Amino acid sequence: MTSALPATTRSITLVDVPAGLPVPGNFAITEEPLPVPGPGQVVVRNRWFLVFPGLRTLIGGKVEGVPLPSIHAGDTLFGPTVGEVVAAGPDTPLRPGDVVTHLLGWREHALVAAADCAPVGDALPDPVAHLSSGSSAYGALTRLAEVRPGDTVFVTGAAGAVGTLAGPVARLLGAARVVGSTRSAEKAERLRTELGYDAVVVPGQGSLGEQLATAAPDGIDVLLDTVGGDQLAAAVGAARRGARFALVGALSGQLAPDRDGGSAPAEIDTFRLVTLGVSLRGYSGVDHPDVPREWTERFGGWLRSGEITFPYARITGMDRAPGALQELFEGRHLGTLVVELPPV
């Protein structure tokens, strides 16, 4: 055991299940004794944890087909995290000082089985980059959509955690033109100037189909969809023959106040899918276990060469964590959103 550890630690718990989108009042900061690791266990001092829209689905209890459990009233939230081992029980290869990733975020300290931790190593130049959603974008673009040189790629939700990486990755994979969507005119400008998107459509500012026809006058070859709904329908209307659609998210349902986070209906022209031979597939990471390692290797190389950046925003401090999901749902930030817990 290491010395000078605190006697207590704090975590974010769900107070009650909201009827709509969660707000800070649905969460509470609770304090409890710092756990002592047993055999094969470690205590990790979390430094950064991911704020992700999938928590809405878990809180709503709609977990069919999702490889994660529901979150009930009284439960501590969880999610991808980077932290430092501060105490280690017997029979574990990890030692205090090791930096690891695990899934017990939303707390200052986590008691984790060493087998459920992954040492960070030096594959990525910034430890926070291990919280990126780029693996999903990369896997969908390489395994399902199979981006080819010269393709026109459309990325919905391009200002989010997946989209801010999907566009630049599509370009590195050979795409000739990359188009995105975002509901913010300010973010649209940043996507063009900072992340290399050729054009950006803004839902709510005129016909989405007409905007997409202007942004991609020859149609689209690849869709990476994080939104669904009307944006998926517009993409079908812009599809070229043999277009490949990869669906990685359903934000239109997860962010709808009148839904439960477990569905995202869309009305699409299936006749067009048939006549143009358009493929439409959903991406699930559990079906592609080889992708994370491959992504990390390529991501690290691209980051070091400057060919790609990792856009993320930090919310600093445990006291601000209960409001982090609301900030995510309101679209206040570009890219990945993390809560940072400064070292003590």
Automatic annotation (TrEMBL):
Domain Enoyl reductase (ER), chain residue ranges per copy: 25-339
InterPro entries, A to Z: ADH-like_C, ADH_N_2, ER, GroES-like_sf, NAD(P)-bd_dom_sf, Zn-ADH-like_protein
Annotated Pfam families: ADH_N_2, ADH_zinc_N
Recorded GO MF terms: oxidoreductase activity
Matching SUPFAM superfamilies: GroES-like (SSF50129), NAD(P)-binding Rossmann-fold domains (SSF51735)
PANTHER family xref list: PROSTAGLANDIN REDUCTASE 3 (PTHR43677:SF3), SHORT-CHAIN DEHYDROGENASE/REDUCTASE (PTHR43677)
Name of the protein described by the UniProt record: Alcohol dehydrogenase
Taxonomic source organism: Streptomyces antibioticus
Lineage summary: Bacteria, Bacillati, Actinomycetota, Actinomycetes, Kitasatosporales
